[in-house]
Amino acid sequence: MDKRLLITRSRHDPANQYLYAYSDEIIEDAQKLGWKVETAEDEKNNEQEVASRLAKNKPNFVFFNGHGTDQSVHGYKDMKIIDVQSASKLSGSIVFARSCSALNSLGKEAVKRGCPAFIGHRGLFLIPRVFEYECQPGLNPTAKPVLDVSNIVGKHILKGDTAQVAVNASQAKAGNLMLKMLSTTEPHNAAVFLALYQNSSTLGFEGDPNARA
Amino acid sequence: MDEDYVKKLVVARLKTMPPNIGFSIGSFGDFKRDELIDNVMKGTPIGKEFIGIELKMLIDTPKLVGRLSGQATSHY
Fold first, then answer.
1. How many CB pairs under 8 A join A and B?
2. Residues of A whose CB is below 8 A from B17
3. CA-nearest residue of chain B to A77?
């Protein structure tokens, strides 16, 4: 049976536009690997729609893009789409929340209620941007390395790797890029370094390290 | 550490970045470099968050560099 991916994303503010754009690569990878891909986008990235798709399709892997808090992940117009009260809806799905802080409480609660592994961040998620490339997320020289590193988590889960391997791979790539940046004089790299540091040092997971989608 | 010194340190580090750079900082929103400097100096919630991130990074960077000579462990 095909594996199922549910990915949520919106374009209502610059940060979400960047997360949206960099999710294209995850969708392409999933399709190439034979996954059945469901997206909850823009107006459809809301609590009711996401709950319905989780219940109906039982995705193996859920990839949330959006703002977040310790207790929740948000969708279109920053409306909450999942929180600690509804965490049981993630039962049976490996989750990656590309958002701020959701690993702290939501991740723990989701695992208590049957999510095999919840990958996310324990602090703020930073996206550095050069203004001249604002409308070209894929070319923005400061956002690209940061979001490419974040995508590594999703790519490994799609390939069948464990939650632990996916997190380690993303952190290793961030570390290697940061080491290279220490010896460069490119002024944009100070912003990239800071974001790579913040995002990789707060990346982690709750649940079974050997969980696979 | 003295609070004024920490602010000056973080501002000095932010000034190493070109002014055409900004950050999306979660639900705090989007900030240009000079807006962040202003928030750090005024001690706003986002300014304090940013100070925390910078200090943590400064403390951890030697561990990262230690990987070059294999003398330190790191979670990276």
1. 93
2. 187-188, 190-191
3. B27
User: Quick one: closest CA in B to A204, which residue?
Assistant: B75
Chain-centroid distance, C-alpha B8: 11
Question: Token digits for A97?
Answer: 């929340």
Radius of gyration of chain A from Cα atoms? 16
- Kindly tell me the burial class for residue A9, based on how many C-beta atoms sit within 10 Å of its own C-beta (0-12, 13-18, 19 or more): buried
> In the structure encoding, which two tokens stand for residue A16, read together?
């979400």
pTM: predicted TM-score of the whole model, two decimal places: 0.94
- The complex's ipTM works out to 0.89
Using one digit for the tens of pLDDT, what is the confidence trace for A9-36?
999 999 999 999 999 999 999 999 999 9
Tens digit of pLDDT for each residue in A73-96?
A: 999 999 999 999 999 999 999 999
**Largest Cα span, chain B:** 41
Does the distance separating the beta carbons of A190 and B17 come in below 8 Å?
A: yes
Q: Which of residues 113-142 of A touch B (CB under 8 A)?
A: 123-132, 142
